[in-house]
Amino acid sequence: QVQLEESGGGLAQPGTSLRLACAASGFTFSSYAMSWARQAPGKGLEWVSGLASDFKDTYYADSVKGRFTISRDNAKNTVYLQMNNLEPEDTAIYYCNWPAPSNDYWGQGIQVTVSS
User: Fold this and answer.
1) What is the dihedral of CA 71, 75, 76, 81, to 10 degrees?
2) Burial letters 72-89, b for 16+ CB under 10 A, else e
3) pLDDT 10s digits, 61-77
């Protein structure tokens, strides 16, 4: 079955960096685009970033453009989200997402808290 497992979250000070990782299994990872989304306290789900299977196309929400970088390692079936210059507004639960043709699959989510 499809599994998406996030890691790398935690507490960070403003201006610092974190890198999230999502280990995928149960499907042909290299054939599909992957994405990240987040949900801040009291707010709805916000799409953050996406990356095509061929590495050619990347997409970012305006709120993270220039600070976050999405990447993938198809040999490790893993997608990453490098988050630099973190802001308190980045505090959220971050979710890995496989937008499969027939369904949306989500990881369990991982907490990122940005606070001094």
Assistant:
1) 0
2) beeeebbbbbebeebeee
3) 999 999 999 999 999 99
